Amino acid sequence: MSSLEPVSVILVTAGSRGEKLLFRYPFCQDSHVDGMQDEDFNCSEDENKSENRIRSFSFARKACLNYSDKTLANILTPREKLCGKKFELRIDDVLFVGHPTLVTQETQSQRNDAQAKVEGINIKLFNIVFALQAEIDSSVCECYHDLSQKISTALKHEELRCGYFSTERQTMLAIHDEVSELPEASEASPFHLILPKSTLAKALCDAFD
Asked: Within a 10 A sphere around the Cβ of 136, how many other Cβ atoms?
């Protein structure tokens, strides 16, 4: 388990439906990493560094998974004036890094009428966030910020070209709505259902892996 690995990748948006966490990965506990108990870390002195990295990763993963979607949507969606620059927020064992991107009215007005009819077009901004271990080296943190910026730039370009992000957003929102109507006893995960239906979700998983 490398200390350079991200803990999670998260996509949040703000728009006509307010702040929304559209997708996060991974979206379930890792039975190997997160199931470890303190006794699993009893080891020789030579193994301490490796085991401490695993422990740190485990704590960060658990902390991130314990945050509700609503909480993450709230804390990871900055004001519009903070878009277009590095986003960095540390909470306990987790460091959140992204590059919030504004989807301007000018961008949306350049799309044709057919594209403009896509439901949910009113998007103010989006933020692709990598959750990292809080003590990660600053140079590694900068690499993940650069990755977030590159993905965001490509998404904004495709939104202007063909409304790609609006379409993907609507697909994700529809699945969230379907899951919200299921009985409370249902354990269905919207993210599990989104993954095979969204090319954007698959791309974020690839970036994480």
From this structure: 20
Q: Six-digit token pair at 95?
A: 């460091």
Q: Is 2 helix (H, G, I), strand (E, B) or coil?
A: coil
Give the pLDDT mean for 29-52. 50
Q: What is the DSSP letter of 196?
A: T
Strands 123-133 and 18-25 come out as: unpaired
**What's the CA gap between 14 and 12, in Å, rounded?**
7
pTM, two decimals, is 0.82
Express each pLDDT in 163-186 by its tens digit. 999 999 999 999 999 999 988 767
Report how far residue 171's alpha carbon sits from residue 187's, in angstroms, rounded to the nearest whole number: 20
Which conformational region is residue 103 in: left (phi greater than 0), alpha (psi within -120 to 50 degrees), or beta?
beta
Confirm if 97 and 86 have CB atoms less than 8 A apart.
Answer: yes
Q: What are phi and psi of 6, to 5 degrees?
A: -75, 155
The residue whose two tokens read 């003590």 is: 135
Q: How many angstroms separate the first and last alpha carbons of the chain?
A: 13
Task: Write out pLDDT tens, residues 58-101.
Answer: 777 787 888 999 999 999 999 999 999 999 999 988 999 999 99
Q: Are 41 and 56 in contact (CB under 8 A)?
A: no
User: How many CB atoms sit inside 10 A of residue 126's CB?
Assistant: 26
Identify which of 127, 143, 100 has the alpha carbon closest to the alpha carbon of residue 4. Answer: 143
The CA distances from residue 208 to 23, 98, 112, 115, in Å, are: 13, 13, 33, 30
